[in-house]
Design goal:
Oligomer: heterodimer
Largest sheet of chain A: 7 strands, mixed
Order of helices and strands of chain A: EEEEEEEEEEE
Number of strands of chain B: 11
Shape of chain A: globular
Structural class of chain A: mainly beta
Helix content of chain B: under 10%
Number of strands of chain A: 11
Number of helices of chain B: 0
Shape of chain B: globular
Helix content of chain A: under 10%
Largest sheet of chain B: 6 strands, mixed
């Protein structure tokens, strides 16, 4: 099946630094990728939709200047948490849509646990 | 706003018992998906239901999409400790040919004790 690779799996950083998370579709082209945030024991909250070659669409309440998304190629989207603060600590997950699959299946990365000290 | 209400939020049962998880909405979805997530990992797709009234089976798991495509259920027969995990339902928000963005339920944390 299709594979989505997300890196890093976990990252610890100091408050005020920026962290970049990568999401790659390994064996299919993904014109659309999604970024989610998940708090412990809670469900996924969609943050933004990343479209290849165009600006990302952010959900209400998500700061676009805080969470920078770049989808420069059909296989790579990046999420940069700028000037991270402890409240940004969370589990971040990406997903990619495989248009080659029936019903345009969505495949998820393994997630990135971000801890801001 | 299309919301998906998932219940129960927590479920702790003994091995061998049956259980049902529900996902309800007042809105119609073009399709609905069920995922299972392990701690520290991304969700893994279990099934997608598209047609109202559709029933799909995956070994001991039975998934049903309501006739009106507003609700869905996941039934597990003879639960095993390996079934332990977070189960998420997700509805497709857009219509037409594209699946569109997904709206997730809050999840059901299932614990099956040996």
């Amino acid at each position: 099946g299709a594979v989505v690779s997300q890196h890093p799996s976990w990252v610890i950083c100091k408050s005020g630094t920026s962290v970049k998370i990568e999401c790659r579709s390994l064996d299919f082209q993904a014109t659309t990728m999604f970024w989610y945030r998940q708090f412990p024991k809670q469900s996924l909250m969609l943050m933004a939709t990343s479209n290849e070659g165009s600006k990302a669409t952010y959900e209400q309440g998500v700061e676009k200047d805080k969470f920078l998304i770049n989808h420069a190629s059909l296989t790579l989207s990046t999420l940069t948490v700028t000037s991270a603060h402890p409240e940004d600590s969370s589990f971040y997950i990406c997903s990619a849509r495989d248009r080659g699959q029936p019903n345009e299946k969505l495949f998820f990365g393994s997630g990135t646990q971000l801890s801001v000290l | 706003t299309q919301l998906l209400e998932q219940s129960p939020q927590f479920l702790s049962i003994q091995e061998g018992e049956n259980l049902t998880v529900y996902c309800n909405s007042s809105s119609v979805f073009s399709s609905l998906q069920w995922y299972r997530q392990e701690p520290g990992e991304g969700p893994v797709l279990l099934v997608t239901v598209v047609t109202g009234g559709e029933v799909k089976k995956l070994k001991r798991l039975t998934f049903q999409f309501g006739d009106a495509r507003k609700d869905s259920s996941l039934h597990i027969t003879a639960a095993q400790p390996g079934d332990t995990g977070l189960y998420l339902c997700a509805g497709a928000r857009n219509y037409g040919g594209s699946q569109g963005n997904l709206i997730f339920g809050k999840g059901t944390k299932l614990s099956v004790k040996p």
